[in-house]
Specification:
Layout (H helix, E strand, L loop, with lengths): L12 H12 L5 H14 L3 H12 L12 E5 L10 H11 L4 E5 L9 H7 L4 H6 L1 H7 L2 E5 H4 L7 H7 L4 H5 L10 E5 L6 H11 L1 E9 L11 E9 L1 E8 L18 H12 L5 H16 L6 H13 L2 H12 L2
Parallel strand pairs: 1-4, 2-3, 4-5
Antiparallel strand pairs: 5-6, 6-7
Helix pairs in contact: 1-3, 3-11, 4-13, 4-15, 5-12, 13-14
Subunit structure: Homodimer.
GO molecular function, one term: anthranilate phosphoribosyltransferase activity
Function: Catalyzes the transfer of the phosphoribosyl group of 5-phosphorylribose-1-pyrophosphate (PRPP) to anthranilate to yield N-(5'-phosphoribosyl)-anthranilate (PRA).
């Protein structure tokens, strides 16, 4: 068995790719992995380590074909706020706006309801959704890439993550390893001060355009509660900026206003959203949908982008899209 490095040793990207290859290939013990992940998180992962680890995961994934311009919007999870499934709803809204979305996600590891849990509670057959992913993406403009179907190397890691119940580098690796090879993304992370480090990792991996965002209170998505740190990553470089809900003509609201629950609770809230229910959940979804539409190249104006998302909800297109998706994924 391989011996993992001590926690105080910072790895360059090449060494990180090698070490995470050992982890993913089962060449070290579960106890060693748990120790290594917790210690690395405690001292904070470097951009080089994140990029190298993501390359190791990418090298072992099962890819799918995707139309040009396909995007993803997701959070790294592990923020401890247990909010409703914002990025899952955003995926439906953005796809209803005519932008192909390859939603990459998983079951909950450190939250009450992950994207897969909530979509399943809405009636989407996860096995069928995986089997028909390329078809639904091509014909409906949306698919769900269940991590376990595309990252078989993660099979032995998931129980370790669930046992730990805390954020680790694997939360950071997932959004950087979309099986559709998306080149445009909105990624939310749970640490505002960490945005430039994560942005550097994304820049090392390359992208057409990606927003890395974090709410000031540590929300892993754009937050209505206050300000947001945002890195605009293009190619191999990025710039930092501050973003507020008012820029999208949306009101502020506390994080508690979008507190979620178990999959059934979150699914009911998402169904209500698709039926036109107003409130902070809708506003949070529109804020993040606006960011996704901007990185997709639809507009540079936050208010215009939010209004485009609102029209996709109010017209019923997002609701119809979900119904067609459930029907096609049989």
């Amino acid at each position: 068995m391989k011996q993992l490095p001590a926690a105080d040793i910072h790895l360059d990207a090449e060494k990180a790719e090698e070490v995470f290859g050992w982890i993913l290939d089962g060449e070290t013990s579960d106890d060693e992995i748990a120790r290594f992940l917790v210690d690395m998180s405690a001292r904070s992962e470097t951009a080089e380590e994140i990029a190298g680890a993501a390359r190791a995961l990418r090298a072992r994934l099962i890819p799918i074909n995707a139309p040009d311009g396909t995007v993803d919007c997701c959070g790294t999870g592990g923020d401890g706020h247990h909010t409703l499934n914002v990025s899952t709803a955003v995926s439906l809204v953005v796809a209803a706006c005519g932008v192909s979305v390859a939603k990459h996600g998983n079951r909950a590891a450190s939250s009450k309801s992950g994207a897969a849990d909530t979509l399943e509670a809405l009636g989407l057959d996860m096995e069928a959704a995986g089997r028909t992913a390329e078809k639904t993406l091509a014909e409906l403009g949306i698919c769900f890439l269940f991590a376990k179907n595309h990252h078989p190397a993660m099979g032995r890691i998931q129980p370790i993550r669930q046992k730990l119940g805390v954020r680790t580098i694997f939360n950071l690796m997932g959004p950087l390893s979309n099986p559709a090879g998306v080149k445009r993304q909105l990624i939310g992370i749970a640490r505002p001060a960490y945005v430039p480090i994560y942005a550097k990792a994304k820049a090392m991996l390359g992208t057409e355009r990606t927003f890395i965002a974090s709410g000031d209170e540590g929300l892993d998505e754009l937050s209505l509660a206050g300000g947001n740190e945002l890195a605009d990553v293009s190619g191999n470089d990025f710039e930092m900026r501050r973003v507020l809900a008012v820029q999208a003509n949306l009101p502020h609201a506390p994080v508690e206003a979008i507190r979620g629950g178990d999959p059934v609770h979150n699914a009911k809230a998402l169904e209500a959203l698709l039926l036109g229910t107003p409130g902070p959940y809708r506003d949070a979804v529109l804020f993040n949908a606006a960011a996704t539409l901007i990185v997709a190249g639809r507009t540079e104006d936050w208010t215009e982008a939010a209004e485009t998302g609102a029209e996709a909800l109010d017209s019923g297109r997002a609701k119809e899209l979900l119904a067609n998706w459930i029907e096609m994924a049989q």
